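Field: COMPLEX_INPUT
Field: COMPONENT_COUNT = two
Field: RESIDUE_TOTAL = 581
Field: MODE = joint
Values follow.
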Amino acid sequence: MIDTHSHILPSVDDGAKDIVETFRILNEACDAGFTDIFATSHYIEGEYEFNKTDRKYIIDAIMQKVNDEGLNINIHIGAEGYISNDLPDLIKEGVVPTLGESRYVLFELPLRAKVMYTDEVILKLTKMNLIPVIAHPERYELIQDDPGIAIDWIEAGALLQCNYASIIGRYGNTAKETLYKLLDANAVHFLGTDNHRAGSIYTRMDEIKKEFRKRIGRDKLYELSELNPRCILNNEEFEIEMPKRIKGKRR
Amino acid sequence: MRKEIITQSDPKSPISEVFRALRTNIQFMNKASDCQTILTTSTVQAEGKSWISANLATAFAQSGSKTLIIDADMRKPRQHKIFQMNNVPGLSNYLSEINDLGRRQKIDGMNCVKQTEVENLYLLPSGNIPPNPSELLMSDKIIELIDEVTKNFDVVIFDGAPCLLVTDSTIISRLVDSTILVTSYKYTKIDDLKEAKKRIKRVGGNIAGVVLNRVEISNKKYEEKYYYASTSNTPSLQTERRVRKTNRNYEDNDSENDEKIKNVFEKNSKEEIHGIKKQDTKVDEYINEKIKDTQRQIQDEIRSTKFKSKVEVPSDKAKEILDSIKKYKD
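Field: COMPLEX_OUTPUT
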């Protein structure tokens, strides 16, 4: 399995607080069956501002230790950007890295507030020949109110990354219901753990995978957790199936 | 540009023919003035206004008229999405004299007009979503704008908001030459339509006619294409993806890079052709594969130079973290 969303780098953001915790998380990830992890620590202007170079050095240093320890896991560079009008420029200037330096860009929206310019950011990124990947849409109030907006994003050229733990209700029941709607509409492209702490999501993967298999079947789960993320690693595009329109409230 | 502009992406399809017929009808309807101003509106939302106005505007542009489409639906703008352009600055910025950064600034209406990918077709997007679109439209500035654009364009099409829900379109209808009411088959209510007509007539608007959209057409009778195009105004995502996929590889704003890719392609394909015996049936396949490889390599190269970080050494904070990592189990 390949994890497309994690906060495992030590003291870079609100994820792992030191290198000891990083290694506890990495061990858990190995046990859960992950072979590759994108280290997508937050990049939020004025809050978490570790740039691409910093991240590269930190990941290199950790990978050395990983090899010393004999762990079978690869860490790839990445960032969870925070939506803003500057995000495309920050990527262009080499401050915010894309996922594994591929064409895929992961970014998040505020959980509660409604952002009016998401479409513009998607447009700017696609014009730069990049593929926007929106992190955990099921957690946004905007999408919980109207999942159809997520379909609009896909039509505009974005892909969606949902969180594994949403299916066991970690982010509340509404997020879980919304994830169901997105999965049923065939609107999810990647799964990620969004793991911040040791002893949290990686340790519950068996239970989570069981839930996913129940909902979408073994093959689809394999696609979302391995095949599609593999395309990011190889910097390839994959054929996207048309999502179904989601019935219910429209704006 | 999205596939929604069927008159452009598939000019030979029956649906494009329908739009050209509509265009001709309107051309004959109005006489005297040099410039025609047309408003499209509907009773309620989701009847296909934006799609109709975008395609109608394209049909006008194709006939050689310099055409402007104004997105006057400042509540739920869609034209910028259809033409895949930036929504700001636009109509609301011009009317409110507040620029897209929220500062007061006099904005020239013509400066907000952007050229689309369709020849002869220009777009004035709606701008930032204002809290009070109706009030903005009541100001004299809209009349000034119409005066100005009619001097510069042959045809001006307003894509309005639904006229039963908000008054925006009713306000515009008295300023334009003619108004088109868009209705949707088995969706629009006849009483709503009557009410809409009454409202427009009351303010002195001139109704050119009614467009009946989304009529079901028998699959057997027409080509499948026709059926698909006329019944759904959102094109198949898959088709769009495929188109984008093929285009994207060549798409790059930087003309210098384009040139670079092209040169290497040509060079490479020539070399390969000379290097391989012609009778081999797999030559084409092989060359295509090679071209793809080169393409990928070059794009990687471009990206790494383009998105190159300006700093090469880690920051002080990062150095602290690096030290702590080095100390781990050392």
